[in-house]
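Practice problem: predict the structure.
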Amino acid sequence: MRRTLFALGLALGLSLAQGLLLESDLVQVLEVPPGGEARGVVRLRNGGQTPLAVSLSLEDYREGQGFLPLGQAPRSLGPEGVRLEATRLLLAPGEAREVGFTVRAPQGLEGTRYVALLLTPEGQGGGQGGGEAARVGLQLVQRYAVLILASHGGEAQIAFTGARFQEGRLFLEAENRGNRYYYPQARYQVVGSGGVVAEGALGTFLFLPGGPKRFPVPLPSLAPGEYQVVVFLDDGAKAYAVRTRLSVR
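Answer:
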């Protein structure tokens, strides 16, 4: 079994007072043969000063749509695809603990299927009532979503579908039309009449199979003229490049 870990930020909120810290990568990819099983773990820490209860649950995830009930995403692992070793943890202040999960690949697995593991701190105290009027409170709670991917064979096929210029940044739109995830390093160049005028790294991007992807390309201040913005994607096995014309007036 080959196990690959990489990171993707899917945090839904931020509340340091909650104290929940995730010390594992936010996306875990397990290579699993069809019908086989593989085990993974996530490590949680209570960085607060009071005991913290954390609930664990599973949902589907789709880029551009967010979280869905299990079984609704086209490449979902489904309700039977992941078994959690715990659905609730109680962490003392400063305590760190690992919680395991087992992935069961469907028979005939080809490519990548996935599910989201949601880690949610349980609310401390309920709503406040009494007096002459009811109060409506809004609490921003940190919630982590760990993507769990089960893969076997398959191939990613990236197609670039468009480009938009918005608020000083170029946004490229693409789609993974294959059946396997793609996780490349990305870099860019801005090329003018005299050659390369800017270049840099964009970081890493996860392209889920069957889903869209939209990512920004920061642009420097450019003198009036005609340019080409070239973006390169490379995961060490497969590489892509796309050119976009840019006119600055």
